[in-house]
Amino acid sequence: MIPYSRQLIEQCDIDAVSNALKGDFLTGGKSVSDFEEALASYLGVKHVCVMNSATSCLHVAYQIIELKRGDEIITTPLTFAATSNTAIQCGATPLFCDIKYDGNIDERKLEALITPRTKAIVPVDFGGNPLPIHLIKEVCEKHQLYLIEDASHALGSTIDGVKVGHVADMTIFSFHAIKPITTFEGGAIATNNTAFYEQAKLLRSHGIVKKELWNSDMVTLGENYRLSDIACALGLSQLKRLDAFIDKRNEIAHYYDKRFSNNPFFTTIAIDQNKRSTYHLYPILLDRSLWCSKEDIFKALHAKGLGVQVHYKPVYQFSYYKERFGEQSLETAEDFYRAELSIPCHQGMSMDDAKMVADTLLEVLTSIKGCLL
Ligand SMILES: *Cc1c(COP(=O)(O)O)cnc(C)c1O
């Protein structure tokens, strides 16, 4: 089975991890700050604070802006549940804004959702395709809202050559196994705001600060969201190859773009000329006539060894959300969910694999009958 995404672990990663295992510090050592500095320099931002997951980073970012009961955030329904779950954990209510057909939040619909309770806008760079973050930043500035960018898919994505991570108050990245690079589990907050960075470090580690000798103080209520030195050693090793990973994914994606242009079954998502996507996902959008056959298509592709997946069921459709916040329906998010399949696109694939994926996909779709509308 060729999965839709997969980590690439090579000998240098194994060496880095086994060396780290022999070190004096398995956690709380120098690999952590080395990894943070390497990330900050790669991104070109002032500060990076790594944690044990992007979910932890989101939770900490919301605590830093003092998100609390009665507050609202505006986010996308086309994301992993953690983007809004962590806001609910702070007591806040997530409002979902509809998306565009590229899977990113529709910035034109944001203002209509702003209320006196809105505290932040939290968009996601879907599949690694960079958001029009400057437009969203303008809305935030006009209404004095925080901007937290969930860039879990987008480490290394660029707009006009500038990496994602410069514009929002805080930008969150994920190092989960199959994200652009991995630290097994892990995540990071990137920010140019020194006060936010200091807060993030405190909240990551119990809110405790060291004083002199044995003396310490706990100044705020924090968590243990630290990332180990072993994980950071893997991250450092992976980060060196991130641009090569992205190049590989782009090579496959460009092959798919060409191969699939003008096919009768589905459309693909074009990335603007001035942008580079990590292609964490390569989504295809099935023609309406095939929506009712999607389960059959999914099964047939899996049977042929294509580990396709669907991203995402709109978050408001989860039973927890329905019970707590009521039924909702956003037109484009619903259509996108019915149409979308993420096909294999990752750095462990060869171009022969990509050709096999394309051949198999077109062959399966040719054999499936669309439904009569
Ligand atoms: C993966 C992901 C997360 C959560 O990342 P973890 O590191 O697994 O906690 C959050 N948001 C989005 C959009 C993701 O894809």
**Into which percentage range does the β-strand content fall?**
15-25%
CATH topology of the largest domain: Aspartate Aminotransferase, domain 2
Q: How many helices in DSSP terms?
A: 12
Give the oligomer, counting copies of the same chain as homo and different chains as hetero: single chain
User: Sheet bearing the most strands, described?
Assistant: 7 strands, mixed
Question: Overall pLDDT, averaged?
Answer: 97
Work out the count of structural domains: 2
Structural class: alpha/beta
* CATH classification, class level of the largest domain: Alpha Beta
* Portion in helices: 25-40%
Parts with pLDDT < 50 across at least 5 consecutive residues:
none
Count of DSSP strands: 17
Bound molecules: pyridoxal-5'-phosphate
Shape: globular
Q: What is the N-to-C succession of helices and strands?
A: EHHEHEHEEHEEEEEHEEHHEEEHEHHEH
Radius of gyration: 21 Å
The CATH homology group name of the largest domain? Type I PLP-dependent aspartate aminotransferase-like (Major domain)
